[in-house]
Design a protein that fits this description.
single chain, 142 residues, mainly alpha, Multidrug-efflux Transporter Regulator, Chain: A, Domain 2, 2 domains, 3-stranded antiparallel β-sheet, 6 helices, 3 strands, elongated
Length: 142
């Protein structure tokens, strides 16, 4: 069993976050000890980890709670839970593609300035940047 503080340390979040997620019903099964303090087992730790992970992907807390409620209803909600996770996965993959594009811009800028600082010539490639711009625009039009 883990205390709020231990859970916070394990997951790298604040004690406030652990309490808040529990208060919002995002950690099913939380128990209390004889001093009425929250205690968590491995399953609750896992629920909190999943809830935080989903939130970090941009899924609203309301939707996370809905997912948990569906889970608690049993196998009759498998399709709905699958759809929630699939939709969120697609959003994250799209965000990853956008981040890859941005890292290319940063890589080119860092390389450009590193060469200049080392006293080397570097001709800025407007053609390369234009390709990145249009690649990003095509993704945004989808």
């Amino acid at each position: 069993m883990y205390t709020v503080k231990e859970v916070a340390e394990i997951l790298g979040v604040s004690v406030h976050t652990v309490r808040y997620y529990d208060d919002q019903g995002l950690i099913p099964g939380t128990k209390r000890d004889s001093y009425n303090q929250r205690i968590f087992d491995d399953m609750e730790l896992e629920w909190l980890f999943v809830s935080i992970s989903l939130r970090d992907t941009g899924l609203p807390l309301k939707e996370i709670k809905r997912y948990i409620e569906l889970y608690q209803q049993g196998d009759s909600t498998l399709q709905q839970r699958f759809e929630i996770m699939s939709k969120q996965r697609e959003k994250v993959l799209e965000e990853m593609e956008n981040l890859k594009l941005r890292i290319k811009v940063l890589d080119r800028k860092v390389d450009h300035y590193a060469k200049l600082l080392a006293g080397k010539e570097d001709e800025w490639s407007h053609e390369y940047m234009q390709k990145l711009i249009w690649k990003g625009r095509k993704k945004n039009e989808k």
